[in-house]
Amino acid sequence: MRKNFLAIYALVGALVASPVFTSCVDSEESASVTQLRGAKAEQLKAAAALAQAQAAAEAVQAEAYAALQKAQAAYQQAQADQKIQQIEQAAQEFAATIETIKAQAALNLLNIQKEVENVKNELTDAEYDRFNELYNQYQNELSKLTTFKNNLLSQKANLALLEANVISVDAWNKANTISAQNDIANYKAQLAVYQENKDLDNATLQAKAEAARIEAELAQKNFNAGEEPAKLVAANELVQEKNKAMDEIRNTINNINNNYYIVEYNWGHMDVRINSNNGYSNNWYTHGYGYFENIRINENNKLNATRQYSANVEHWATELGTTEDTKDKNTAYGRLAAANADMTAAKALPETTDEEKEAKKQAIANAETAIAQATDNLAYYQKNYDDAVERQAEFTELLATLDVEAANKLAEEMIAANEANEKAWEAWEEAYEGINEKWEEYYALNDLAWYAGTDINQIIANLEANIAEREADLVRYQRNSAEETLAMAKESIAQLEAKIEIQEKVVAERKAALDALLTEETPAE
Questions:
Q1: What is the pTM of this model?
Q2: Smallest Cα–Cα separation from 456: which of 141, 188, 193?
Q3: What pLDDT digit, counting tens, does each position of 185-201 carry?
Q4: I want to staple 336 with a disulfide (CB 3.0 to 4.6 A). Which of 374, 408, 423, 509 is the partner?
């Protein structure tokens, strides 16, 4: 199908009401003119829907680019902060954010396309024949443009992951190899249909396209009710479930190692293909998962850390003292006792003369200040003691929580789950191959009907060129050099940007033809 690697076809529009025809007419000529007026009104609404769709698609893509830039800035800041304990987690969050951005943009564009299809379905009246032809040509070229732009977003997002070393070079090459293989298969399927049916008239093509659509939908329905989609989704979910459990272990280890490097481990990484449409279509993305393996406790560091936590508690307990401490104790409680004793002594001073009264007043004031300071001092030491006790308890609890044997077993389970996931993908793709061919037959027949009046031989030549280009890409994706892969990713983006520039001119030409038709005068009643 043409829905590979989150490259979703197209655009958004608004629903258009059915034509309203008046019953208050007296002659056949008057009714005809009225119908033409109603047709022109619906044509204008449909053209407005396409314009809204184009604007909405541009807004979706602009929002996605802004989100992409924000995610890149956040990840770069995390690296700049040099917090080693957090860099691995930041990389995982960055990858998840990028995939969410791509998936959400693709979903929004798919919803737009559905609305445009609703508009097109309204344009079936015989009065719309010429408008239908131009409308379909415009929509088709606009859909291509949006597909190009969505592919560009996806490629730029993947390049961001590649440059940040969040996905591996091998994963990038593998993902693009699968995408190229899918493209080649789709192009060849289209080419075969074009060559076989290029000389048929429009009515025959439409009938064949409708029959192909019904057949494809039935095959898709049977496939959806079969085992492969459910098995693939289950395999995807198992990998993500194991990764969630590994996240908890990573957080536990990072917290244990917050001050002392007690838990040693090796860092592992695997790239996982995730289906983004419940297994019903070939929408997928590659997600990099990190994990800890060969986890072990450094007993010497553990002993030193345990002693240090105990020493901290003991230090602050000594500084704090107890409520039983008297004024001669150099503790926080002792200093408060001394300040209270000074207050008692100040209040006991004589106050017979004015000088004595003033001296007593000053002594009481000094004692009040000393009590306030001693109270603040006590609060400071109490907090430090409480924090030291809490840190010691957290450390002890975290150590008790970490099951090293289970954690190492989980790493093995993650790897096994990913291997099972790949097997589920292979089974899914094998089962889906026939359905994909049926959809491509429908798309190609439908396109042929849309291309009425155009040079089909040129379109066939373009398809052949596309096949050759993607076959050349396949060879290039076999490279292992990180530098070559990065250069190729940037080159692919540049090529796509050039295609977009050309396609924007084609869309403008189609729109001009449609606008010219819409500006034609409708006969007066």
A1: 0.58
A2: 193
A3: 888 988 898 888 888 88
A4: 374
